[in-house]
Design brief:
The protein is of the alpha+beta class. The chain has two helices and five strands. The protein is elongated, with a radius of gyration of 19 Å.
């Protein structure tokens, strides 16, 4: 009886998943997502990036803010912001924000 209960609980846990606004794979995730685009009528001439990392979702470090990416690219007027996330098995999670502008 206990074995069936444990198996049922494990099955429900594995199949239910968590709701997320971004696509996340259980084994591998490698996605690029838009964050924002502005109505500035000029093409981007500069690109800045900022990144951060987390290990096992237990320890995280870095500055992957839009302000850090603007500073790294010498950008004062933002035209678009994109976000990249990749991980394998959730062990090492890499985040990168890319800002384009002038």
């Amino acid at each position: 009886m206990l074995k069936k209960l444990m198996l049922s609980a494990a099955t429900v846990t594995l199949l239910s998943g968590c709701g997320s606004m971004v696509p996340i794979g259980a084994i591998i995730t490698d996605v690029n997502l838009p964050v924002i685009a502005t109505s500035v009528n000029s093409s981007a001439t500069k690109t800045g990036e900022a990144s951060c990392i987390s290990y096992l979702s237990m320890v995280a470090k870095g500055d992957c803010s839009i302000e850090a990416a603007k500073k790294n690219g010498g950008i004062s007027v933002v035209t678009s912001v994109d976000w990249h996330y990749d991980t394998i098995l959730g062990i090492v999670n890499n985040y990168k924000v890319t800002v384009r502008g002038k």
